[in-house]
Automatic annotation (TrEMBL):
PANTHER family: BTB_POZ DOMAIN-CONTAINING PROTEIN KCTD9. Pfam families: Pentapeptide. This is Pentapeptide repeat. SUPFAM superfamilies: Pentapeptide repeat-like.
Amino acid sequence: MNTEELKRRFAAGERYFPAVNLSRNKLIGAYLPGINLWGCDLSGANLAKAKLWGADLSRANLAKANLTRANLSGVKLNEANLRGAKLNYAKLYGANLTGAYYDDSTRFSRGFDPISQNMQKV
């Protein structure tokens, strides 16, 4: 699936896209609140400034994804792979990060504490 197809189907009312491959896709500023991308591959994708509040990204592969300034409020990121992801200035209010994986190359906003969010360092 490519970015244009995803946006078209989302605009038509579809919300459930489990395990799709969107690696290295550009979704800059995408408006996708409430989308279900459970287990999908978003590795290396550019989601800067994307509006994803209330989305389900559980078990998604977001390794090296750019989520700078993305709105991830209320997003489910349970067991997501965030190794090397850029989360600078991302809005994470009410997000569930339990079991999400991160490493030394993952970038968070200043003051963000992954341990208090029950994340796992690998």
